[in-house]
Amino acid sequence: MIAIIDRGKNLMGALYYNYHKVEKEKAQVLFTQKMIEAPDGSYSVSQLANSFELYLLANRKTEKPVLHISINPDPKDSVSDADFSSIAQDYMKQMGYEQQPFVVFKHTDINRTHIHIVSICVDEEGRKISDQFEKRRSMVICRSLEKEYNLISAIDKKENSQHFTFTPVDYKSGDIKSQMASVLRYLPKYYKFQSFGAYNALLSRLNITVEEVKGEYNGITKQGLVYFALNDKGKKVSSPFKASLFGKSAGYTHLQSYYEKSKIVLKDHPDKASLKTTIEKNMQATTNEITFINRLQQQGIDTVIRRSKEGRIYGITFIDHSSKTIWNGSQFGKNLSANVFEEYWNKDDKLQCSSHENMSNSKRDQSEKIDIGQAHELFNFLDKENIQNVTLENGLINALGGLFSSHQGQDYDEEAFAKMIKKKTKQRKR
């Protein structure tokens, strides 16, 4: 089981994100504590927001008072609604939020049923509830709850990451925005990538692409991101979605900062050397692109290749799902750069083309030699007395013309001879 903790300023954004799924019948309000409830037991966003109002008004100095926590059992776990409610209460109590108002939403929009908890991290007097060693405490609590509720266990952080699976967007299933949100909100928490290209390569495996947009507002240049859903062929199949719809982690500013942090982590990453060796061995053991990609995929490594309109490889990216890292080929060294793969996979085609061209040239040269040889024989045979009795066939007139015009200087006797042959040929055709 994995718990992901987000902190922010926008309470309404967190509530709308969850309640929108309730309206789409992809989620339900599973449990509430200290929340205003309507007489018929229903809830609305404004009603839920009012339950937190006094806490926010009392807030003293906490910059990000809103808590948005997701708790994700393994997809193979079968958890009842009663157990989900109990897990949420136990988790909040052990994290120090047992006296806080909170609402629990159960999400069923993807094949991994999970819960979201929206709460506040300041008490009634506006004091911040301690978040010291928060992630460490959260992991310990998750291990304890796994045992208590007989859930599939994740031993350490690395193993946790392996159990957390991302489902590619299926535009035919509808509610594309929610499907994309379930990916974009958490992807940077699990994978390390240090460039926009690497990020897009990872997204492409999940049927998503992102593009940068630039503009000016009051003379100030603004930059942002828009996301699209893709079909299985990599073609856009949705309208653009602004990054702000998916939270801070999907935005331009946050990702720029994330790239820099990832560069530091990946510079001396312990899995880099072994990953490079694996790619090199598979490259040496294969002679074509498809076999190479399939072999790496069997070892948990995806390969994303970028091509120009002419089909030339200009970029290659490797996604290692074991270490949750993304690398451009050139980061391992020049021997794994895009140009090397372009040459390596297409060398046979180029050799065949070269061989075919040489054979064509050889045949053409041989043909020309035959024609020129025949022309020389004809030239020696012909004279003014017998020229009218000669029948020219198989384009020898062209060979004669070529032979004569190939000299650098002009030979007027030869030109006259060629004209005479042409004239006789025309007369004979008539």
From TrEMBL:
MobA/VirD2-like nuclease domain residues: 25-151
Domain of life: Bacteria
InterPro entries: Endonuclease_MobA/VirD2
Stated name of the protein: Relaxase
